[in-house]
Amino acid sequence: MRSIRRTTTALAVAVVALASGALAAPSASASTHHQTLGTRSLATVLAQDGSSFDHNWHDFDIVDAAVTAVLKAKPSSPVAVLADGTVPLTAFLPTDRAFRVLVKDLTGTWYHSESQVFAATASLGIDTVEAVLLYHVVPGATITSRQAVRSDGAVLKTALPGGTITVDVQCRRFKIVSLVDADPNDANPFLVRSKLDINKGNRQIAHGISLVLRPADL
């Protein structure tokens, strides 16, 4: 794993300092609509698929394992908000294949099992993994896919202090939506149409994305 550590030094330096910031609480002006939504957490939804890695590269075993690893190492991490269903938020969840592509980009190795991809991801260091996870969370807002396709150009503030992503709606009719991250040189992820509105009807909602959002220019 020395290779991945060398390759991702820039990412670690750029995001670890940011990860120490606290997750902002939803503003007092948040829509009262939140009060009518359920309180099932995203952590509960992710756990329903089980804790084992499998051969399905289109679900979320790696991000689930990453959340578990961060909270085991740092129980007070802001990532814990994913287990508090009373807090409104939107999470953009990279599929297992998205992490596979990220690791291939960083190391040059195309791993053939989810456990290997997770090990390579974890080797970045817990603080970096925490920061990357927080960059995928938009606190204080329950954004449905219907709202997302009507939000072209919207700049979303993430749970990583100073982090933002921009909504790029490329085809409203077919819900083709891209998210522009902090790395201008690599492809941006798209919302996965078969993985939209996860946990809909609750204050915490998620949408699957095709690539991992990058909080720094690699």
Q: How many DSSP helices?
A: 8
What is the tally of beta strands?
A: 6
Largest sheet: number of strands, sense, barrel closure? 3 strands, mixed
Strand order of the largest sheet: 2-1-6
Strand content: 5-15%
Computed over alpha carbons, the radius of gyration is 16 Å
From the N-terminal CA to the C-terminal CA, the straight-line distance is 18 Å
Uncertain stretches: 1-30
User: What do the pLDDT scores average to?
Assistant: 88
Provide the domain count: 1
- Gross morphology is globular
What is the ordering of alpha helices and beta strands?
A: HHHHEHHHEHEEEE
Strand-pairing-aware structural class: alpha+beta
Helix content: 25-40%
Fold topology:
Layout: H1 2-7, H2 9-16, H3 42-47, H4 61-73, E1 89-94, H5 96-107, H6 114-122, H7 126-135, E2 137-139, H8 145-148, E3 155-157, E4 164-171, E5 176-180, E6 204-209
Parallel strand pairs: 1-6
Antiparallel strand pairs: 1-2, 3-4, 4-5
Explain how this protein is built.
The protein has about 220 residues and is of the alpha+beta class. The protein has one domain (about 1-20, about 30-145, about 190-210). Helix content is about 30%, strand content about 15%. It is built from eight helices and six strands, in the order H-H-H-H-E-H-H-H-E-H-E-E-E-E. It has a three-stranded mixed β-sheet with strand order 2-1-6. Strands 3-4-5 form a three-stranded antiparallel β-sheet, with no helix packed on it. Helix 4 (about 60-75) crosses helix 7. Residues about 1-30 have low confidence and may be disordered.
